[in-house]
TrEMBL record:
InterPro entries: DUF1467 (IPR009935). Keywords: Membrane, Transmembrane, Transmembrane helix. It comes from the Bacteria. This is DUF1467 family protein. The keyword Transmembrane applies. It comes from Erythrobacter insulae. The chain crosses the membrane at residues 6-26, 53-70.
Length: 94
């Protein structure tokens, strides 16, 4: 696999991981006991920490991309693993 393909896969996995992780660990102003600023949405995060999110997404994306590339190279899990339907009957000519 070319290094550019690995980089593209890493980028896609990183973005997907970052978006999946966004709601975890975020507390609203009400949950953290802070005052709500006038005009602020009640669901707005009070303690958003982008550095922590970036670090977690980076670590998880590295692990997932490494597993994907290793599976691509060594063929641990192939399409035949997901072939759960029975084979269709063969038609014999009379």
């Amino acid at each position: 696999m070319a290094w550019t393909s690995i980089l593209a896969i890493y980028f896609l996995v990183w973005v997907m991981t970052a978006f999946i992780m966004l709601p975890f660990g975020v507390r609203t102003a009400e949950e953290s006991g802070e005052d709500v600023v006038p005009g602020q949405a009640e669901s707005a995060p009070a303690n958003f920490q982008p550095r922590k999110l970036i670090m977690r997404a980076t670590i998880i994306a590295i692990v997932l991309t490494t597993l994907y590339v290793l599976n691509f190279e060594y063929g641990w899990i192939g399409i035949e693993v997901f072939d759960i339907l029975p084979k269709p009957p063969t038609l014999e000519s009379p």
